[in-house]
Amino acid sequence: MVKHGDNLYKVHRSDEDGNAFHSLSEGEKTVISFLYFLELCKGQSSSESTPRKKVVVKDDASPPALIANCMRNIIEYFFNFVQKKDFNNVFQKPALSGDMYQAFSRYMNRESHSLGQNIFDIKEFDYSIFKDGLRLVFEECGYSEHYKVMIK
């Protein structure tokens, strides 16, 4: 990529003239899209501005599968990598074992591409129930302060 005007970039290959965007592989397009997304997350209007640390989250108008998958990734990352604990027993706690949280619990307890059951569970997706379930996971495990800080 080469700088092309104010705050604009142009995809350029050293052996080609003109715009090389149409010759990019899917992987190259994905990387460029991801980098563009990261730049948008900075929320800065100027390239000279200093970005602040941010966590980008889980819009309730997004597709249900995306929201649920992000929630599952948050839970897995926090428990498996940060706390180095297994979170499977969390869903046995009375607060999360009620009928209201069944779809949430099933979705959080398996990988996103498992058996196709998630497709049926996502039809039961209710943003407020899933969001409340996410809160309960952290509270029931003693991490309510962490949840309060991160949800802001």
Structural write-up:
With 152 residues, the protein is mainly α. The protein folds into two domains: 2-42, no CATH class; 64-151, no CATH class. Helices cover 47% and strands 3% of the residues. It has helices at 26-42, 64-82, 102-108, 117-123, 127-140, 144-151, and strands spanning 2-3, 9-10. The protein has a two-stranded antiparallel sheet with strand order 1-2. β1 and β2 form a beta hairpin. The relative contact order is 0.09. The mean pLDDT is 76.
Topology:
Layout (H helix, E strand, L loop, with lengths): L1 E2 L5 E2 L15 H17 L21 H19 L19 H7 L8 H7 L3 H14 L3 H8 L1
Antiparallel strand pairs: 1-2
Helix pairs in contact: 2-5, 5-6
Please list the strands of the largest sheet in the order they lie side by side. Answer: 1-2
The topology string of helices and strands comes to EEHHHHHH
Averaging pLDDT over every residue, what do you get?
76
Structural class: mainly alpha
The oligomeric status of these chains comes to single chain
Termini, distance in Å?
35 Å
Number of domains: 2
Q: Which range best describes the helical content: under 10%, 10-25%, 25-40%, 40-55%, 55-70% or over 70%?
A: 40-55%
List how many beta strands DSSP finds: 2
Major sheet size, sense and barrel closure: 2 strands, antiparallel
Strand content: under 5%
Q: What global shape is seen?
A: elongated
Number of helices: 6
Uncertain regions: pLDDT < 50 for 5+ in a row? none
Using the CA coordinates, give the radius of gyration: 20 Å
List keywords for this structure.
2 domains; mainly alpha; 3% strand; single chain; 2 strands; elongated
